[in-house]
# Entry
Amino acid sequence: MTQLRELVQKVRSKNAGPFWLTVDIFCGTDEAYQEVQARLKTGRVATAMGANTQDLKRFDIPSLNVIKISLPRPTIQGAVNDRDMHGASWAALIAELDV
Amino acid sequence: MVRVLIPSGALGLNYDKVALQRGIDARPDIIAIDGGSTDSGPSYLGRGVSKYARASTKLEWAGLMEARAQADCPLVIGTAGTCGSDSAVEWMLDITREIAGEQGRPLKIAVLRSQQSGDDMAKALAEGQITPLSNAPDISAETLQSCTNIVALAGAEQIAAAIDTGADIIIAGRTTDTAIIAALPLMNGCHAGAAWHGAKIGECGALCATNPQSGVILVDFDDDGFTVTPLADGAHATPHTVSAHMLYENSDPFILYEPGGHLDVTGATYTALDDTAVRVTGSKWVPSDRYTVKLEGARAAGFQTVLIAILRDAHYVANAAKWAADIETKCTAKVCDRLGLSADEFSIELRLMGQSASFGDLEPRDATAIEIGVIGIVTASTDALSMEIGKLLNPYMLHHPLTAEEEQPTFAFLFSPAEMPRGQTYEFVLNHVLTLDDPMQAFALEVLDL
# Structure
């Protein structure tokens, strides 16, 4: 199996405000973009993040060779059960997905 | 044409002084800098305080006040003091007074306040003027009244009103990141799509370019588009770095909602003018029927005490999850028994750093660590109670055995005492917008002569 991180340049996750999280997958090249676009299933990302597929917004952006996925924050930023104030670590979970 | 000089993504993050001087020499029409965001969490808005050190803020602000005098143009800060509450605006104003005294120049200051009262907001909710955005928590009048601070995000209209006073310096409470940059181009009839798009690209300073930490950029707006030019040595904007910035901390890379409408960059074209500057055209501003401003609110969410231990014994490292779950169960029962509380009146959580602290049950990997850091987090209704529960948790984190048969273990504590009070915590409770009949309705503008 191949992990997503082996195919791409970088995966970044950030807060998009306190209630949303956004993950940017920078593929780097047209070839990598096409490969990731074909192999990365939105449902797999949802499962990895403990979210429902229908809550994910996915943007495939060929001009940047980027796939962006936004979702309601798994926990509200800074809530007692939040583990990651800036939403920084979620990228690792996606980068390590087998695709 | 309107030329906006942006020293960095936020006051407190520092800026390149040589690049700033280049910006001053380029004769900007305004210098705009952001003072905050929600990104560091609810405590800053909850307490109405700044995240950055006063010393850093003062040093950097003094440099910008000097730059303003040299450039002979207005200087505006949005979301003063990280959260933009009235108390944070006062803090910024106090620093400004101090510097003005030291620099010895008379100044006209416009202060734009964004704070909302809980009672006013409860009334607006009852009148149907407050509506939820996507993934907003349910709220009631009581939620709004329980907030320690509520702010509304000002847009370009309120900043324009402040600029119109002829002030040398504008200290604004909570604003959108873009409004402080977009306001002057919009006032001068520049292309509205370009004004908002250029503002979004510029709001993090040189983050839209290579050498992102250098900070300083110049954005030129006209009636057709905008041009972004980073000013530090080694900083280059390319069509890729500029267009990629629309991804940053934005749930939708093409649409950005602002008071009074939204920006649509689907049709934007990015062209390299040389190896440093990028020209952007084709962005669209779509006005909305209603004028709405976003609300942010934070309220108290209990007091915390934290303990840290390290597991290094291989047997305990291998069985850490079981050990931690057993402590949570047993200590919760003991707290109920000894303090006469029910289990929903407090919480005890052990997070295992090196194993599952990032994702909990969602962590798919399973590897044996050398050691595991254990963070015990107690949350309760008062400081004294969270400390008392922390003291009940202490012996478990120090000595809890996996089985009754084994010799009593001892784990590493970093500190004495092991219990560390974190004080009052806060939570964000609003992801809503407020409808206004007049943009200034929820904001207050004051002009001061220093």
